[in-house]
Each structure stands twice: as C-alpha cells, then as structure tokens.
Design brief:
With 416 residues, the protein is α/β, with parallel strands linked by helices. It has 14 helices and 17 strands. Strands 7, 8, 9, 10, 11, 12 and 13 form a 7-stranded mixed β-sheet that branches. It binds NADP nicotinamide-adenine-dinucleotide phosphate (NAP). The site of NADP nicotinamide-adenine-dinucleotide phosphate (NAP) has 29 residues, from helix 1.
C-alpha cells in the first residue's frame, strides 16, 4: 500500500507537543509535515521551531484546506471537544492524547467519526508509550479477554516509587513529578485516580466492547495514603501501587481504580517511576504484560507519532468488540477486600463491612481489614475523609478470584 503524505495542524505545544515535534524531526520514514501549530499564550517563549508555524486562531487549522490531520495536544478538554468535533466534521482525521476528552465523549466521538468518515486515533491517551489500544483492536480482537489491569498513571507511580525507595515525603515527590512534566496540568486528576479511570474506561471499550462513563467507575486516589500505611506495607514486605483493573465475570465488567498492596513477587512491584504496565488476560493468549513509559514528552510524543504513521496507511479503529454487541454491562456492585486505616473510630462504620478479618487499634495507627461492597465504598465517600485511607487488597466479585486468594494468603501470613 502506498503511504499517504500528510499535512498536520497541531493544537498545543507543551510537554507532548514539543515531544512530538522533536520525534517527528528525527524520524525518517514518516511522510508528514507540520503546516501550523495553534497555541494559547501569546507571551510564552517558544524554543523552536520558527515563529512562522504558530497561530492563536484555531480556524487557521480547522478551516485550512491544506491540513488533513489535526493533532490535538492541549491541556483543556472542553476546548479540545470543540476542536476535535469540528475537525472531524470538516473532514480532517484527528489524533489526540486527551484521555478526559475521549473517555467522557467516546460514544459521541465514534458516531461523528463514522458519520463524517474521518478517523480518530488516541493511542497516547492510554498509558502513553504502551501500544495498548491498537493491540486490543487488532491482536486481541477475537480473544475472550477476562481482565485488563495494571498501573495506568505515570505521575502517581513516580510519587509512590520515590516514597517507597527514597523515603521522600508525598508533597516533595508530587513537586518532582510536576517538574518532570509527568503530571497533568491539574495534578488532582492524577492523585485522585481520575486519570487512571479515564484510561480504564477507554480500555474497557476496546477490550470488552462496553462504553462506560468514567464517573461510574469506583476510584480511590493516593492522596490519603498515610506515612503509617507506607510503614505498614514496608513491615509486611509489600508495596503500594495505584492499580486500575477491569475484570469480566459473565456479562459483567468489574472495574475499579485504587491504591493496592502488591507483594514484591508481583510483576507490578517491578514497575517503577513513570513506567506503566498493562496486564491482559485472555482465554486463548493467557496472561501478557506490557511495560513502558506512561508519561513524558518523548514517550507520549512517540505514541502520537505512531498514530500519525498509522494514518499514512489509512488506519482507523473498527471497534470490533463494540460491534460484537455482547450485552455486557458494568457491574453495579461487587465485594472488595480492603485495608482501611483511620485516626478516629467514629470515622468508620464497622457495620458497612460484610466481614472483618482483622482489626487493630493503636496509638496513631488503627486499621481494619475486611470485605465491603463497592457500592458502599462509593456511597460512603471515604475518599473525601482526609483521616481515612483505603487500600485495596483484592477484588472478590461473585466468585473469589484465585489471585486474590494468593495475595490475601500472603498478607494474612505476614499479619500473623
Ligand atoms: N504530559 C504527559 O506525560 C502526557 C501523557 C499522556 C497524555 N497527555 C495528554 O496530552 C495532552 C497535553 O499534555 P501536556 O502535558 O503536553 O500539556 P501542557 O504541557 O500543559 O501543554 C498544553 C498546551 O496546550 C495549549 N493550549 C491550552 N489551551 C489551548 C487552546 N484553547 N488553544 C490552543 N492551545 C491551547 C497550551 O498553549 P500555551 O503553550 O500557549 O500555554 C500548551 O501549549 C493532555 O491532554 C494530556 O492529558 C500528557
């Protein structure tokens, strides 16, 4: 197939935009030239390229007949929605790294992309450099996937690594993640688990053929993990990782994002700093693991470049799992096994637990380990109580998962 020569209009020239510019400059095979770059701040110094590229008027790209691909790399999901929908309607292919935009509007965006016959690609939106979306679309299109899980957020993994390995406090570790360009413009999205939740909802669409609103997914952040919890983990030989997971049981998908204890023998324990990991389990392929940089200008720019390259071969997502129409739904309720630490017993209602396997009340550190329903956890808004921290041990669902039994057995053995 003869590759198409593409003309690019880029929106955003921050961490990812400049990363793309540099990767595009250094690659030789790709047939794509920049026509214009639209940015917002007229006063900002731009190290490169020549000033001729820059515009502050989005119409210089959206209404420019020369541009055939819009590359959206802004930190404003609302403006991105306007720009991406207009671009698709104007017959321009779109590549974006914006997970919030895709996760919150996937249904609508797929329908516009199909109606106007314009491709929309977003590999960089999920775990940056890890090629998860295209693999789910192309390689696992006929596998019966049972779960997709892993570490989907580079900045929280960087923060948790700095805390665990170097004893750096949460605040300075967050500052370091911001300085390195790993964090979102508003890092609340990272630390509250929302960024991972966006990625999980996009992955659920491609893995299981189900479109879910990210807000429907239970999500607990790392911001309430206390020094005492980290000490507890250290004493038990465990690590805390922010884990996103979607597991299929029958026609239901059980989805959750939460800090989780992982034993040092767990592969996720070896995934550090800004690295991400995606574990895919299928009936035929069984378990596979992808590890790669989940943040940063070059790794993310490389994923954007790969989408641009795919467009030169007229590639588009076919949403194969969505088209299988398997009547899959998001599970409204399932049991989770949690460790919950608290300062004041009044903050916890023990009756909310289906089962309490361990409780400890001590000076400055009290906790319980038990089973609670996901809906109860969501309803109680523990995540908004600064004195309570919730760390997942495992997800139980309707049937106890084998790996949970394994993790639990390990934790219980340590606790004895
Ligand atoms: N950073 C990462 O590691 C990473 C990884 C994966 C995905 N992403 C996603 O990639 C996207 C970009 O992230 P980033 O880290 O590159 O952000 P960033 O460094 O903050 O850069 C954002 C860029 O967007 C531009 N912008 C904002 N609003 C605009 C508007 N209305 N019109 C034109 N330009 C506008 C800004 O213009 P000015 O330069 O004029 O301020 C800036 O150049 C986000 O969706 C993010 O979630 C980032």
């Amino acid at each position: 197939m003869k590759r198409k020569q593409l003309k690019l209009g880029i929106f955003g020239f921050g961490c990812v935009g400049t990363g793309l510019y540099q990767t595009l400059s250094e690659t030789t095979g790709i047939q794509a030239n920049i026509v214009k770059i639209c940015v917002k701040d007229r006063t900002k110094y731009r190290p490169f390229p020549t000033q001729d590229y820059f515009t502050f008027d989005r119409n210089d790209i959206l209404n420019n007949p020369e541009v055939d691909v819009v590359v959206e790399l802004m930190d404003d999901a609302d403006a991105a929605f306007q720009i991406v929908t207009t671009a698709l309607k104007n017959g321009k292919a779109v590549v974006t790294a914006n997970k919030k935009l895709i996760a919150e509007h996937l249904d609508h965006l797929i329908s516009i992309s199909q109606q106007y016959n314009t491709p929309l690609l977003y590999e960089a939106a999920c775990c940056a450099s890890i090629p998860v979306i295209r693999n789910l679309e192309e390689y696992y299109d006929n596998d019966l996937l049972s779960s997709v899980s892993g570490i989907f957020n580079g900045s929280t993994n960087y923060i948790l690594t700095k805390i665990a390995d170097e004893g750096i406090d949460y605040g300075p570790a967050l500052e370091m993640a911001i300085d390195k360009g790993f964090a979102e413009t508003d890092p609340t999205y990272d630390i509250k688990g929302w960024d991972s939740r966006y990625k999980l909802s996009i992955i659920i669409a491609h893995a299981f053929g189900l479109i879910v609103q990210p807000s429907d997914i239970l999500s607990i952040g790392i911001d309430q993990v206390k020094t005492k919890d980290i000490q507890y983990a250290r004493e038990k030989g465990l690590l805390i990782k922010l884990v996103a997971s979607a597991q299929r049981e029958g026609n239901e998908v059980l989805a959750v994002v939460a800090p989780k204890f992982v034993s040092k023998s767990n592969v996720l324990a070896t995934v550090n700093n800004e690295y991400n990991a995606v574990q895919i389990t299928g009936a035929f392929s069984e378990q596979q693991l992808f590890i790669g940089k989940g943040a940063g200008g070059f790794p993310t720019g490389a994923a954007v470049l790969s989408d641009i390259s795919a467009l030169t071969f007229a590639y588009r997502y076919e949403y194969k799992k969505l088209n299988q129409k398997d009547n899959i739904v998001l599970a409204k309720d399932f049991l989770v096994e949690v460790y919950m630490s608290f300062e004041d017993q009044a903050d916890i209602n023990f009756d909310d637990f289906h089962l309490i396997s361990e409780s400890y009340v001590g000076k400055g550190h009290s906790y319980i380990i038990g089973q609670i329903s996901s809906s109860q956890l969501k309803k109680q808004k523990w995540s908004e109580n600064p004195s309570v921290s919730v760390i997942l041990i495992g997800k139980i669902g309707q049937e106890k998962a084998n790996n949970l039994q394994h993790e639990l057995a390990e934790i219980e053995a340590y606790c004895e």
